[in-house]
Design a protein that fits this description.
about 180 residues; mainly alpha; Tetracycline Repressor, domain 2; 2 domains
């Protein structure tokens, strides 16, 4: 009779995700993960050929977490991109290590636009639809400016350079976006 596996793939990815959230992406090594979930490295490498394979899954799990966060954010401002920007900043504040992995690691598999827009949720497209009489030639320019502004605010928030309440952040976003839209 074959021995039952006590360490499952789900246990490994969940343990790696906990480590990522608590200590950052760099902390997820095979040895540290094995210690965290209470096994040797053998079960990890039985499931994954190498750590790169695990890290791809970890990135995907983080991306899904971001999408769920934005989907359930509850922000619904009539001004285009304020809801998107506020969700982005709140995610950076609440999930700093996931934010760093997704938006500051230079991942070449996904563009920042793809990550922000979401796979199925089309967060950016929903915001574009709020622009009165959108001119598609200017929409890309508006989004680029909005992204630079909200990304800067999020980064300054997680580095401690800028302490913003949600009210302050939404007010700043609204003022900037109205200026960008003209």
């Amino acid at each position: 009779m074959a021995r039952k596996e006590s360490i499952t793939k789900q246990m490994i990815i969940d343990g790696a995700f906990e480590m990522l959230r608590e200590s950052g992406y760099e902390s997820v090594t095979a040895r540290k993960l094995a210690t965290h979930i209470g096994c040797s490295t053998q079960p990890i490498f039985r499931v994954y050929q190498n750590m790169d394979e695990l890290q791809v899954e970890l990135f995907e799990k983080s991306r899904k977490e971001y999408e769920e966060f934005c989907k359930n954010g509850g922000n619904d401002y009539p001004t285009p991109f304020v809801s998107l920007g506020l969700n982005y900043i709140q995610f950076a504040r609440k999930e700093q290590n996931l934010f760093r992995l997704l938006f500051l690691s230079g991942n070449k598999e996904h563009t920042l636009y793809e990550l922000i827009n979401g796979n199925e949720n089309a967060f950016v497209m929903k915001e574009i639809k709020k622009i009165p009489n959108p001119n598609m030639d200017t929409v890309e320019d508006i989004f680029t400016k909005v992204f630079i502004f909200m990304h800067g605010m999020a980064c300054m928030t997680i580095t401690g350079e800028l302490e913003l309440s949600d009210e302050d952040a939404s007010g700043m976003l609204e003022d900037a976006i109205k200026g960008f839209i003209g």
